[in-house]
Amino acid sequence: MTYDFDLFVIGAGSGGVRAARFAAGFGARVAVAESRYLGGTCVNVGCVPKKLLVYGAHFSEDFEQAEGFGWSLGQANFDWATLIANKDREIQRLNGIYHDLLVNSGVTLMESHARLLDAHSVEVDGKRITAKHILLATGGWPHIPELPGREHAISSNEAFFLKTLPKRVLVIGGGYIAVEFASIFNGLGAQTSLLYRGELFLRGFDGAVREHLQDELSKRGVVLQFNTDLERIDKQADGSLQVTTKDGRVLHTDCVFYATGRRPMLDNLGLENTGVKLDKRGFIQVDEQYQSSEPSILAIGDVIGRVQLTPVALAEGMAVARRLFKPEAYRPVNYEHIPTAVFSLPTIGTVGLSEEQAKADGHRVSVYESRFRPMKLTLTDSQERTLIKLVVDADNDRVLGCHIVGPEAGEIIQGLAIALQAGATKQMFDDTMGVHPTTAEEFVTLRTPVAS
Ligand code: NDP
Questions:
Q1: Could you give the CA distance from residue 107 to residue 25 in angstroms, rounded to a whole number?
Q2: Ligand 1 centre distance from Cα of residue 229 (Å)
Q3: How far is the CA of 253 from the centre of ligand 1 (A)?
Q4: Which residue's alpha carbon is at the smallest distance from atom 35 of ligand 1?
Q5: Helix, strand, or coil (residue 129)
C-alpha cells in the first residue's frame, strides 16, 4: 500500500520536531501537525520562559548585593508587564525559528489539530491523510486535582501570561514547577507561600538537598507549609481568594498556583480508533523502541511519561528517526545519569543517585559534603549558603551521585554528568585540578567523608 507520508508526527514540541527534522533529513516524506504553538511546552510555557522569569527574579538579589561592592542604585522598581512583553517577543522569535527549521528541512507543516482515524490515518482539517508510521508527541498538560473552587486556581500555563504580578501567591505542590515558581514570585516581590501535602518537598531528590533548599527558601522569605493540602478555594467580593486547608486553617491570597504534576495530552486524539494502550498511570504505553501496542504508531516525550525533560524527548525523537529511516545509525537512548537542574533560587543541580536511593539500591556509601558561603556574597549581607555533596560507592570508589544547591548549579552539573557517564571514581575526582576560586572546585577537594 502507498501512503501519503512515511511519517506523520502529531505535536511540534521538542521531541516531535526533532524526530520530524531528522527523519526528513534521512530522506523520509514527513508531515507534522501542531494545533497550539510551535516548540511545545518547553519553548512556550516551560523551560524557556521559566528561565527568563528566573533571571528576572534574580535581579532583586543582585541589586541588594551590588551595594557591598560599592554600587548605589537608588530605589529599584520592577514592572511585570515589561518582563512579560519582552518574554513574549522572544518566544515569538523562537516560534519562527521552529517554523523555519521544519519547513527548511522539507517537512510538511500543518498548523491544525490531528486526530487518529485508524492505525495508518489521521484527520486534519476534515481531510484524511495516510502514513506508514505515526508518531505521537503531544506532550503533557498541567493537572489540577478536583476541589471546590478549582476554577479560581491557575497553572503554569496561565502564570506566564498574568496581566499583573499578584501581591500574594499561594503555590500548591512540591515538585520542580512549585519550587521554581515560588522562587520566581518571591524574587519579583510577591508575598509567596508554598503548600505541600508531604513532609518535605522535592520527593526523590537527595535529603540534604531538600533540607538545604528548605532553609534557603525560608531565609528568602518564602513561607513553607508542609503536611497540608487544600480543601477549597472561595472567591471573595474584592476579587481576592480565601483558601481553606484540610487541617481547617483559612488563608487569604490573590493567586492560587497549582503545580501538582502533568497529565499526558490525549484530548480528542482518537486513540479509541486504534489499538494504542495506556499504562497504569494513563500515559501511552510503549516498548523500548517507542512502539505502542499498535505497531505502526509510536510515541515519545512527555506523553509516555517516562522522564519529562526536554533533552530526553530530543534523544527519543532522534532514536525514532534513526530506527525507522537510518537503522545503521540507531543507538538506544541512555537513561542513566540524566543530569537535571531545578531553577529555584538558589538552583539545584543533580546527577546520579541520592544518598537514600544509593542505600536502597544496596550500595555501601561514603558521603562527602561541603557547606559554605559563596565568595561573591562575602562582601554582602546575604546569608545564603551553598551545598556540595558527593555520594560514593565505598566498595569500588565509583561516584554514584553529585548534588549541588547554589549559584550556577545547572552549569556545573553538566560537566559532572560526563564524569559519571565515564564511570569516574572518587580518586579521579581527587586527581583532577580545581579551578580556583570557584564553587565547582569543591567537587575535587572533598577529602573527608561525613558521618551520613
Ligand atoms: P512533579 O511531578 O515534579 O511534582 C508534582 C508535585 O505535586 C509533587 O510534589 C506531588 O506530591 C504533588 N502532587 C501531585 N498530585 C497531587 C495532588 N492531587 N494533590 C496535592 N499535591 C499533589 O510535577 P511538576 O508539575 O512540578 O512538573 C512536571 C514535570 O515537568 C517534572 O516532574 C519534571 O520532569 C518536568 N519539569 C522539569 C523542569 C526542569 O528540568 N527544571 C522544570 C519544570 C518541570 P508527591 O511528591 O507527594 O507525590
A1: 9
A2: 15
A3: 22
A4: 308
A5: strand
3-class DSSP state of 155: coil
Q: What's the confidence (pLDDT) of residue 368?
A: 98
Q: At 268, which amino acid appears?
A: N
Distance CA 359, CA 354 (A): 9
Complete domains list, the chain, with CATH: 5-142+263-329 (3.50.50.60), 150-260 (3.50.50.60), 340-444 (3.30.390.30)
Each residue of 23-40: pLDDT tens digit?
A: 999 999 999 999 999 999
Is the pTM value of this prediction over 0.90? Answer: yes
**Rounded Cα gap, residues 8 and 49, in angstroms:** 28
pLDDT in tens, 185-218: 999 999 999 999 999 999 999 999 999 999 999 9
Number of helices and strands (H, E) in the chain?
A: 11, 22
278-298 pLDDT tens trace: 999 999 999 999 999 999 999
Task: Pick the atom of ligand 1 nearest to 341's CA.
Answer: 41
Note every long-range contact of 419-424, with CB atoms under 8 Å and residues 24 or more positions apart, other chains counting: 420/337, 420/351, 420/352, 421/334, 421/336, 421/337, 423/398, 424/398, 424/399
User: Catalytic site residues?
Assistant: 436
Q: Give residue 397's identity as a one-letter amino acid code.
A: D
Q: Pairing mode, if any, of strands 250-253 and 241-245?
A: antiparallel
- In whole angstroms, what is the distance from residue 442 CA to residue 439 CA? 6
Residue 269 — pLDDT band, cuts 50, 70, 90? very high
